[in-house]
Design brief:
Blueprint: H1 6-11, E1 19-22, E2 26-30, E3 38-44, H2 59-75, E4 83-86, E5 102-106
The structure holds adenosine monophosphate and zinc ion (ZN).
Adenosine monophosphate binds next to loops.
């Protein structure tokens, strides 16, 4: 827990979050400023600053994040229509919240071509 981290505060229940999943190691909640009809953030409960701070010990939680992303996409009904999984890395890569998070984005109505 990092006291000034907004995502740690949500995980601790100190700040409101619209949760769609949680277990011992991972949580998922709705992005407050969605960029698509479905926009969920999936993150480790432990504070990891960014992809650049990953260590070998983080292997289990990283694989858990991807497996939960797949399940949540299915529950949200976008598994077949398709979605994006995105990590923004550092400020140049668009990262503004420095608690590792995976964006699950989808639900667009695309015309078949
Ligand atoms: P990034 O730019 O990859 O760091 O993404 C941070 C994301 O967190 C943005 O899409 C924000 O809309 C989202 N966000 C910031 N604060 C909150 C919050 N309190 N609850 C939910 N989502 C948030
Ligand atoms: Zn944090």
């Amino acid at each position: 827990m990092e006291k000034d981290c907004i995502f740690c505060q949500i995980i601790q229940g100190e700040k409101q979050g619209d949760f769609v999943y949680q277990d011992n190691s991972v949580v998922a909640f709705k992005d407050q400023n969605p960029q698509a009809p479905v926009h969920i953030l999936i993150l480790p409960k432990n504070h990891i600053r960014s992809i650049n701070d990953l260590s070998e010990n983080d292997r289990p939680v990283i694989s858990e994040m991807f497996l939960r992303a797949k399940e949540i996409a299915s529950e949200m009904g976008i598994a077949q229509s398709g979605y994006k999984l995105v990590f923004n890395v550092e400020r140049g890569g668009g990262q503004y919240v420095f608690h590792l998070h995976l964006h699950l984005i989808g639900g667009w109505q695309r015309k078949e071509s």
